[in-house]
Design a protein that fits this description.
Elements lengths: L2 H19 L4 H21 L1 H7 L6 H12 L5 H12 L5 H22 L3 H17 L1 H7 L6 H12 L5 H12 L5 H15 L3 E7 L5 H15 L3 E7 L7 E5 L2 E4 L2 H12 L1
Parallel strand pairs: 1-2
Antiparallel strand pairs: 1-3, 3-4
Length: 272
Amino acid sequence: MHAASRNALTTGTEFVDKLLWESVDKVSTAAQVGTELFLVVDRLDEERALRVNLADASLTSEQRSGIAQSVFGGKIAQPSLDVLTHAAAQKWSTTREFRDGLVQLGRRALLRGAEHQGQLEQVEDDLYRLSRTLIRELKLTQLLGDQTAEVSARRGLLANVLYGKANMFTEALALQVIGRPENNPVDDVAALSFQAAELRGKSVARVETAVELTEGQQAALAEKLEQIYGREMSIHSEVDPSLLGGMTIRVDDERIDGSTRGKLARMRAGLK
C-alpha cells in the first residue's frame, strides 16, 4: 500500500479495535462486523462506480461517508456501518487499496473476535494446520485455487473440509480468503495464521522435525529462539520423517538446517 492508504488502514484498525472493546457483546459484534464488511466488499466488487465514489479524493470526507450511509444504512448493522463510514472518510491512495483496506478490517474484526473469545491461539494453529493440509492435498488446493470455478463452489468445498473441525472464526476467515485470493490458497491461509500470531504479539518460527515435538520441547525451543531474535515466538511445527533426525527452522527469510538429512548433504558436498 502507498503511504496514504497505510495511514488510513492504521486509523481504521484502531477504530475497529476501540469499537469492539467498547461493545457489550464483543464476540458477536466482531463476528457481525467482519462478516458484513466482506458483504460490503462483494458489493463494491460488483459496482465499480460505487467503489470509485467511496474512495474519490476529490470529494470531502463527509461526502464519502454520506454515500456509504445512504447506500448501506439499514442494510448492515450499526457497528459495521460505523466502520465503513469511518473508512470512507479516510484518504486512500487508490480505489483498489480502499477495497483491500476493508478486507483487512474485516479480517481484523474476526481475529479480535477470536481473541475476545479466548481462541486466538487456537485459530492461529488451525489456520496453520489448514495451510499444511493444502500443501499435502494438491488436488484440493488446485480446486480451491481454480479461478474459473464459482466462488460459492470453492467456499462450499472448503466448508465441507472444515465441517466439525474448526470454530466459527477459523471457518469465516478461511472461507473469505478463498473467495478473495491474493496469491494462492496455501500462502493466503498461512498469511492469516501469521496475522493471528502478530495480533498475539509474536513472530512465527516455522519448524520441521523428524519426530513430533512435545509441548515442553516446543516451549523450550520458543524460549531459545526468543533469546536469539529478541522477540516472542510462536512455533508452527510439522513432522517430516525424511529429515531423519533433528529439525529445520525458518524465521522470516532465515533458514537454519539442523536436520540429519541436511548434515549428510553437507558432508557429501564436502567430499566432492
